[in-house]
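Morning!

This is the sequence you dropped in the shared folder:
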Amino acid sequence: MTEHTKTDGLPGIEPGAIPQVVERARPRNERMASDKIECNACPILCQIAPGRVGACDRYANADGALVRVDPALFLRRSAHEGDAAPAAFLPRQAAAPTTTEAAAGEYFVTGIGSSTTYPDYKPAPFIVASKVDGVDMITVVTEGIFSYCSFKVKIDTDRFLGPEQANIRCKGEVVGHVTTAEYGSQMLSLGGVHHLTGGSKKEGRVTCEMMEALGNKAAVELAIDGGSQVVVRSGHAPIVNGVVEQRMRVGCGSATVGIFAKQFHGLADEVVVVDDHITGVLTQHQAGRCLDMRASGVKIRGRRSTPGRYFQVANPGTGWGGTDIVDPLAIVEGWDPATAWPGLRLLMVSTTGEHAEWYVLDDALQPQRAPLPAAVARIVERIGENCEPSLCSVLFVGGAGGSLRAGVTENPVLLTRAIKEAIVNVTCGGAPAYVWPGGGITIMVDVARMPDKSFGTVPTPALVAPIEFTLRAADYRALGGHMEFVRTIDDALQHGPWHHDGAPTARRIETIAAANPWPIGRAPLLG
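The structure's back. Tokens below.
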């Protein structure tokens, strides 16, 4: 390997503020220049020249010492006088928070900036003791290298994004696929080990870059085969074919009919709610029948399911109700002359209320467009009011493998069992994680609840993500944990990870997100 030349020197880092020392220079091989050091934080084994960084931009050679470029991130319950503002660096000369504050459980160490346990036999960078309500606790922290990971993206929109199983591309490379449509949402699966390692080098590189951007709440532009161009960003509305989406549906066509049937009763003789999946027809629907509404005689295209519910009225698309239609009358085949009558009032409306047309049947039973009555318009507005804002939700899913488990205990299966028995609380950057049932440690976390810039990459390629395991000290000892590496939160704040030679360390302190519970708490851990 040769040094990484993408970054010239260490930009933005003052000489007096070099981050924590990870370890001194490793033994050089015969072909390595004498002033280089080898980084073993991942399998790439970069040989880094002085003043340069490795291929991941996370480790650097500072005067012969391998340093972690990013500071270690600590969370606190609330701001304390004298501390840095949230997301700011603490000066190297600044005093560490007092013992009293730390002992009171005010601080929590995250995996962000903590370094990894690679190679696997290393104990976790931080194994920290604290006390909560008189109970001795341990938090084991690392930055995990995840090859087996993906992002599940929930896109709240009524627009058709693409057929199920369709390939999703980023910069021309396949990086995922479309999964099922849920209630008012489209679901995407992005990343995964097969795209990271099973394709071309370019596919793996693009997939890794895309995943890092998604995890760090940046915008990612995707193209779906046979579907739409979509810009996805956690916590923001999706952009579909250049248009910012506004609403997700209030429900399917049938549900919309049922919800608003009583409000339409007496104002309209027939209401058809156009929907790609289940189009609703009020007078045929059970809701209309219970209200004793007179049958209208309308004939709807598509496959009739139960009364007042129709499937496949049109093709999927970005028009009315997630269909490809522009003229809603395209789904009306005609009217039963024995049932319909001149003057019949018809409302055609979409599941979001964004589209609505009012018609009145003439003497030939042909619908003629007319102005939408004010009372009906208010109900259409209410449909829109009941539609939640269109949003992209990005969830990280990762399998915690060897390096994570070995960093906690010499017998990893005990950790797995303890997590499944709710003895261990799992967090990612302090954000609560859902642990999937079944074998292994498969976690899922909403990246919106994680601190900014929580994710990194290594060019194997793989994603780097923080993970923390918190449990009672007695339980950690029973798991066969690395008790000889346990330190106090005070010491962790002052000196950084265990693989540290005594030099001052850079750290960052943020207030925990309001949406997240405190990671070391009685409720999730002690029952």
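Headline: The two ends are 51 Å apart (CA to CA).

More detail when I'm at my desk.
O.
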